[in-house]
Amino acid sequence: MDIYNENFSSIDENGVKKDCKLADFIKGKTVLYFYPKDNTSGCTAEACDFRDNFNRIAKLATIVGISPDSIESHSNFREKHGLNFILISDPLHKLAQHFGVWKEKSMYGRKYMGIERSTFILDENGNIINEWRKVKVKGHVDEVLSKL
After folding, report:
1. Which of 19, 24, 136, 139 has a CA between 20 and 30 Å from the CA of residue 107?
2. 84-88: long-range pairs with CB below 8 Å, 24+
């Protein structure tokens, strides 16, 4: 089965929990951004930047945030920060592995597996037309907008 048609859980732009396929969101350009964890400082700053620029981006593309967090965590994250775009739960790392963002990381000498903060712009067929790896949050949404 191709990754675009695998079932995932999501919180849609209206805060509704539902099962979905990534293909459901790829109707035009799509901004997929992978982030490590709900409610952490960098991930919150990035999500809020996408939220604050939603109207500018939504004219050009659909925004989809993806992390391994549970759908319940996403729901809390969305409500707490007033997020206005789709969040997909990827606890088995299927999407992260497909896009090559499930990586070995290191902190304080301890190695572990986690999400490498990354963003992809997909065309209407799901082809990657731009990508950013090891994203630095500050100024990133402006970089995305410049490519859209």
Report:
1. 139
2. 84/13, 84/51, 84/54, 85/13, 85/50, 85/51, 85/54, 86/10, 86/11, 86/12, 86/13, 86/25, 86/62, 87/10, 87/11, 88/8, 88/9, 88/10, 88/20, 88/22, 88/64
Going residue by residue through the chain, which has 148 residues, state the pLDDT in tens, using 9 for 90 and above. Answer: 488 888 888 887 777 888 888 888 888 999 999 999 999 999 999 999 999 999 999 999 999 999 999 999 999 999 999 999 999 999 999 999 999 999 999 889 999 999 999 999 999 999 999 999 999 999 999 999 999 9
Structure pTM? 0.92
Domain extent, residue 139, equals 3-147
| Residues forming the active site | 43
61 CB-near residues (< 8 Å, 6+ apart): 28, 29, 30, 31, 121, 148
Structural domain tally of the chain?
1
The set of residues, in sequence order, having a beta carbon less than 8 Å from that of 81 and lying 6+ positions away, is 44, 47, 48, 51
